[in-house]
Amino acid sequence: MALNVVVMAAGKGTRMKSALPKVLHRIGGRSLLQHVLDAASGLGAAHTVVITGHGAEQVEAAIAGSGASAVRQLPQLGTGHAIQQVVPVLADANPVTLILNGDVPLIRTETAAALVAACAGTQLALLTITLADASGYGRIVRSAGGAAVLGIVEHKDATPAQRAIGEIYTGIMAAPTAWLKRAVMALKNDNAQREYYLTDIVAMAVADGMPVVASATPSETEVLGVNSPLQLADLERRHQRTQAEALMEAGVRLRDPARFDQRGSLQCGADVEIDVNCIFEGRVRLADGVRIGAHCVLRDADIGASAVIHPFSHIDGAVVGEGALVGPFARLRPGAVLGAEVHIGNFVEVKNATLAAGAKANHLAYLGDATVGERVNFGAGSITANYDGANKHRTVIGADAHIGSNCVLVAPVVIGEGATVGGGSTVSKDAPAGQLTVARARQATITAWKRPKKAPKG
Ligand code: UD1
Ligand code: MG
């Protein structure tokens, strides 16, 4: 059924105490508003509109390109007033209008779809939940038998008896479009907060003979709102738990699902193990049998089968080949491409460099803007000097070359296949294949030299 979706996002979010508009704070790497838009996108809405107000420029910039349009609400005179602003853009041709909250991010597409189906263009459908502590929320007031919904009363306007009601309105509803438009234009603000309450349309529906259905959701997580940093962090953990459970159901072994953070897409093969406190950002792919040690951060990374990433490694924009060993304390930066069985050890940084199969840099090294051949051994403390202060230059190291410790390869420079570079060399000219190149002062022994002696104290 053709659908309008309205996302309310004009509110201030005072309790976040942040310059960033509330709906742009993030959970799992995506803004709260993006979560709502992503859930809505699964509904195939004909039109999606976001109501902006506080921080409107920033919020509108954030949704540019999402397909949703924006309508501003200035000033903010309540949720009913917010919906009044979109009345001119809600097409009657779409018989259902779904209202979502920009600060209730974890609503699932299935739950929203069920509400739309319950509305069916002929009934007002409210998403409700029963809470142990309902304070602050609008209460669902039912008839004596409990079958019929009579209205919603806001906490500030509720009598003590009404405040005892546990069933609350979640802020999410689906309404017949043409009726909704008429109803919100008739709202009044004669209440405790001098606001236009969207929730007053429920009593209007009852008076109009428009059927009202309240669907209770069992999932608190889906309808919790974010008003404070504490609630933001709580929903982050709930969201991470949901993602962790999906991975574990697919066979991924998370050492502790409570210490796992996925802030993008994470695709895992069979027999993947992830130790505690790892963060995955952007698009990460872990092939079969990959093991990720504790405290690693991986962003936009592709890790080949059976590779092992040891603890405290940082991988960003890199490809790691099958069976490679990385870390502990390794840093792979954008453009690092490691072949099969490559070993990158502790305190080794690789940037914009290709290492062919079997190459090793096991300790304290920098490989930047380099092409490294198969089985090359790059010694401890050695670096490519790739930057002359203005331009970057490339280092090419042929297969089976052996670079000793503490070498500086001053790019552009080519080390031939099978070449050996003596430890401590500063190499600024090409080193021929198969030969030993040494570029350091010769060792000398001064035979007649005497160590100075201190004069005895007088
Ligand atoms: C609202 C409901 C309450 C429900 C609760 C669920 C009303 C009158 N009350 O109360 O029944 O239990 O949500 O969380 O609707 N907004 C605007 N413009 C405004 C005011 C609000 O866009 O002028 C947006 C806010 O950004 C927010 C949403 O509407 O996304 C809800 O507003 P909020 O002020 O949080 O309403 P509550 O008082 O919590
Ligand atoms: Mg609220």
SSE order and pairing:
Blueprint: E1 3-9, E2 26-27, E3 30-31, H1 32-41, E4 47-52, H2 56-63, E5 69-72, H3 79-86, E6 96-101, H4 109-119, E7 124-130, E8 139-142, E9 149-153, H5 160-163, E10 167-176, H6 177-185, H7 201-208, E11 212-216, H8 220-223, H9 229-249, E12 253-254, E13 260-268, E14 273-274, E15 278-286, E16 291-292, E17 297-303, E18 308-309, E19 314-316, E20 319-320, E21 325-326, E22 331-332, E23 337-338, E24 343-355, E25 360-372, E26 377-378, E27 383-385, E28 395-397, E29 402-403, E30 408-410, E31 413-415, E32 420-421, E33 426-427, E34 436-437
Parallel strand pairs: 1-4, 1-6, 4-5, 7-11, 12-14, 13-15, 14-16, 15-17, 16-18, 17-19, 17-20, 18-21, 19-22, 20-23, 21-24, 22-24, 23-24, 24-25, 25-26, 25-28, 26-29, 27-30, 28-31, 29-32, 30-33, 32-34
Antiparallel strand pairs: 2-3, 6-10, 7-10, 8-9
Uridine-diphosphate-N-acetylglucosamine is lined by residues 8-11, 51, 53, 73, 76-79, 81-82, 101-103, 137-138, 152, 154, 168-171, 197-199, 225.
